Hints:
Elements: E1 2-7, E2 10-13, E3 18-26, E4 30-39, E5 46-52, E6 58-59, E7 67-72, E8 77-82, E9 91-100, E10 107-110, E11 114-119
Parallel strand pairs: 2-11
Antiparallel strand pairs: 1-3, 3-8, 4-5, 4-9, 5-6, 7-8, 9-10, 9-11
Amino acid sequence: QVHLVESGGGLVQAGGSLRLSCAASGSFFNINAVYWYRQASGKERELVAGIFGNGSPNYGGSVKGRFTISRDNDKNTVYLQMNSLKPEDTATYYCNMGIRTPTVRYLEVWGQGTLVTVSS
């Protein structure tokens, strides 16, 4: 089994910064893709940022230039650095990874979510 554990959410004032982390643990060969999604109250889940394979990061339009996704393959961890936060960034943020395990070529795994609240 593979588990993702997220951390780093919290309350921050508008204009501030937070860094989210998501660490994978369990039995697997490698992490093929990493993504961050978010879901605000009453809204659908949306893609915030992602890295597939060795490709370049991709970002949702509303966060481009403010958020940075990165990964540390040695630590099996993905990060989301969030700068210049706005109240509309308030949401629960979810980590998502595509992981190759001994039995599954691409296993999609979700983190438990971490709440980010940006006050005006």
